[in-house]
Amino acid sequence: MKALTANKYLVIFLTQFKNLLEYRVNIALKLIRPIIMTAAVASLWMVLFQVSGKDTIAGFDRSGFIFYLLVVRYIAIFSPGGRLIADMNEEICNGNLTMRLVRPMHYLAWLFFRALPIPLFCGIMGVAMITAGAMMFDAVMPSGVRMVIFIFSVIATVITQYAFYIGIGILSFWVYEVMPFDRFFRTVNNLLSGQLLPLTIFDDGVRNVLIFLPFASLAYNPAAIYTGKIETTLAIYVVLGQFFWAIVLWLMVIFAYNKGLKKFEAQGG
Amino acid sequence: MPVKAKRSFKQIFYRKSMDVNVLSNINFSIDEGEFIGYIGPNGAGKSTTIKLLTGILYPTDGSISVMGFDPHKDRYQYTYNIGVVFGQRSLLEYDIPVRDSFLLYKAIYELNEKVFAKRLAEFVDILQLEDLLHIPVRKLSLGQRMRCEIAASLLHRPKVIFLDEPTIGLDALSKAEIRGFLKRINEQEKVTIILTTHDMDDIEELCHRIIFINLGNIIYDGPLSELKSQYVHTKQVEIAYDKPVEIPEQYQDMLLSIDHGSKYVFNITYADAVNVVPDLLRLGSARDISIHEPRLEDIVKKIYSSQTPAS
């Protein structure tokens, strides 16, 4: 019985995975976007390198910096994106959630497994791009234990990202328009997750707090583990911290969802 | 600041809301295998009742039990036993072919291969789905989609089916096909069906019992025939004469209309019909006569108008 129950989510995942071909242009654009973003942010940092006259900033030299930006951008690609929030917002506000609730499945699990294939596919392609980037920028690839820690870190990142995105979508039970929350989240995310600037730019005290916050789990932590900016022993604690936040956030999401369901109005006939 | 301006300013930040009782005193029980027509005007609370019965909404008061389940509390297990079709919403996955949607439901309802294949073959045959299985749902016409929706919601052999306006927007042929199918599964599989619709032809053709609600209250619960006898006390008699005739004063009140100069339409009570009709036929040379009961549609309209809040 349990195996069959798990099977239904696997089929949801595979059905959506089969659908990938329908979205091949989206996927191509999603894969290219991090390169453009990296180029844009990197060019600003290169100016800073030039103006400051320093060879290293926040512990990175020029090529190390570009490689770091490439890694965070490709890790962020695992994110389900604003589309998930927009779909949830529409589904909850116009009452279409109704059609999910009349079936024997958990809505949150359905959302997760339905949204996962494209980011997962892009993310795996992204790891290939990171590897290519490592060769191009002559970066040292993590090996052995560090690679295992990195993989766990990325898994925690994916789980945390979905908790954030689905959590924002769930606000639709209380407010009609949740996209401003999405934009607010992205802004904070850009700043605190290390996507625009590595957290090494902050002094030790602030950084040691930030790396244990859930935002750092979204990009900086796996990128820093990959690029060796967090030493192995600390990396283990960092990944444990990531899983802690992933669990806490999902518990909050489940709690909010159960509360929200009681407020659900199922608009329309 | 004047009070009114202050209130308006406050409303920018704070909108007052209030709770409205959509349903009250709704009590009914349904036996296995019944085909129920759940009807009422727009806003009467039909869809709300269906949403409560399917576990989508949470009742603020009262209790609901279907097959021993509390629909909201036991939603997960309960949904294995019910089928739901909302005419204005789709159960199927938009981007993928119909067959893939069915396979998805096979997994969701945990059907084994043999049961699924047999059931699908039945539906393909009865609902003529063969040519639709490979087409993505977004490319289907409304009638085609509705046939697929009904199949998808019944693949798992539910014991109770809730249908909320399943024939809305369909042409006459598609309606007839869907009605025929519903009648068949109700009779052959003894499935309990609860149908809400504004299409009274659906009700007349399919339902044995009607629950009529308005303003959140049940105003009638019983067989269709009794609804008619309760609300209808007249028959309509149409007599076409060769030429215009003079209607005696005692029958003037019964006259509803005169069409094409010589076709007279009367509204005559059951009690008077036997005596009045022969008299009317003697008024002139009658070419044609037809006697019929008001359509359910007209009866329902009459009940709606007598039940509006203003009346």
Give a nutshell description of this structure.
The complex is a heterodimer of chains A (269) and B (311). By secondary structure, chain A is mainly alpha-helical. Chain A contains 13 helices and no strands.
Protein architecture, described:
The complex is a heterodimer of chains A (269) and B (311). Helix content of chain A is 73%, strand content 0%. Chain A contains 13 helices and no strands. The longest helix of chain A is centred in the C-terminal third of the chain and has 32 residues. In chain A, helix 3 crosses helix 12 and helix 4 packs parallel to helix 8. Chain A has one domain. Chain A is an all-alpha fold and 269 residues long. Chain A starts with a helix and ends in a 6-residue tail after the last helix. Chain B is an alpha/beta fold and 311 residues long. Chain B folds into two domains: 195 residues, Rossmann fold (3-Layer(aba) Sandwich); 60 residues, Alpha-Beta Plaits (2-Layer Sandwich), CATH 3.30.70. Chain B has twelve helices and ten strands. In chain B, the strands form two sheets. A six-stranded mixed β-sheet of chain B has the order 2-3-4-1-5-6, sandwiched between helices. A four-stranded antiparallel β-sheet of chain B has the order 8-9-7-10. The longest helix of chain B has 18 residues. Chain B is globular and about 70 Å long. The model of chain B has no long low-confidence stretch (mean pLDDT 86). Chains A and B meet through helix 1 and helix 5 of A and helix 3, strand 2 and helix 4 of B.
